[in-house]
Amino acid sequence: MLRFSMTCCTAALLCAAGCGMWPLAAQDKAPIPNFAPDANTAWTSDRPASDDFLPPPGGPGPVMSDPAHPYVPNGQGQSTYRVADLTNPILKPWVIERMRKANEAVLAGKVPFIARERCWPAGVPAIDIYNRGQPIHFLQTPKQVVIINELYAQMRHIYLNVPHSAHVTPSWYGESVGHYEGDELVVDTIGLNERTFVDNYRTPHTEQLHVLERFKMLQGGQRLQVSVTVEDPGAFNMPWSAIQHWRRVQIPLIEDLCEPNNVFFFGYDVAELPHADKPDF
Fold first, then answer.
1. What are the residues facing 243 on neighbouring strands?
2. CB–CB of 158/144 below 8 Å?
3. DSSP strand E in 5-162: where?
4. DSSP character for 274?
5. Among candidates 134, 133, 145, which has minimal Cα distance to 215?
6. What is the mean predicted confidence (pLDDT) over 137-148?
7. pTM for the structure as a whole
8. Among 83, 93, 170, 192, which has the highest number of CB atoms less than 10 A from its own CB?
9. Which helix (H) or strand (E) holds 95?
10. Rounded CA gap, 70 and 201, in Å?
């Protein structure tokens, strides 16, 4: 079941997602967007050195860097890790406290958890900022859109023109259903487990997380924008929005695998993968 806590306008959108009333692509007069006209068309971040969400033009936005401890990406003279701005009004008290501990660990010199550095799935919406220069690829069929993030072959399946399942078992990427609205791909995702963060600032969420994404090509198909709306009444005081941009490139999809290690020798702040104390052979 979807949870309704937004404005009436947004609630109508949510009901459309949860009640199976998405408009079909055939009902739209504008041609649907073609994100993959050939096998080599891909999309890479406009800002390869800074993989953070951009704030929306107005209203509540994503967690950003603490002004007192600005994030400096690698390759710009020093290596730093993110310290979150905990004054963002979207954050519930328990979220602030958990993130405060993460901030303190970074300021103490520890290496924080970053999903892509541990080979862990990013979840949604963090998958939109998961890569750092590596492109994303689209596979589009009448019934499904598959988004492949080249970094460690992270994949999302978006099922078109269908309602959400009556009962969704929480998972890394949840359940994404979508439809085309003219030249936009609209994706509604629920059923996300609590093992992921919504961004690179280690912002947690609950299983109530609900994400709406709108993918739209700009500048004659040379840019791709995703507008993200997030609500989670268990973690956030209000819905908030963010933006990500990619630019079009011609790069074939390559195999890029990552093997998680059960032991972290550098004191990384991460829950280790399950492992046996004794070999079973």
1. 54, 227
2. yes
3. 41-45, 136-140, 144-149, 154-160
4. P
5. 145
6. 94
7. 0.80
8. 192
9. helix 93-107
10. 12
E strands in the chain: 41-45, 136-140, 144-149, 154-160, 175-181, 184-190, 210-218, 223-231, 240-250
Residue 29 carries which side chain, given as an amino acid letter?
K
Contact call for residues 78 and 235 (beta carbons, < 8 A): no
CA distance 148 to 59: 30
CA proximity to 127, closest of 186, 45, 64: 45
Residue 255 is given by DSSP the state -
Taking alpha carbons only, the member of 209, 203, 207 closest to residue 52 is 203
Query: Cβ(131)–Cβ(253) under 8 Å?
Result: no
Cβ neighbours of residue 226 closer than 8 Å, sequence gap 6 or more? 128, 213, 214, 215, 216, 243, 244, 246
User: For residue 65, what are the β-bridge partners?
Assistant: 84
pLDDT of 111: 77
Of residues 167 and 15, more confidence is placed in: 167
- Tell me: cis bond preceding 57? Omega within 30 of 0 counts: no
Enumerate the domain spans of the chain.
8-19+27-250
Q: Which residue in this structure is represented by tokens 């979840």?
A: 123
CB atoms within 10 A of CB 265: 6
Q: If pLDDT is split at 50, 70 and 90, which confidence band does 25 have?
A: very low
Tokens of 169: 């078992």
Token pair for 43? 């999309």
Quickly count helices (H) and strands (E) in the chain.
Answer: 3, 9
C-alpha separations of 114 from 10, 71, 79, 209 in Å: 31, 14, 14, 20
Please give the single-letter amino acid code of residue 75: G
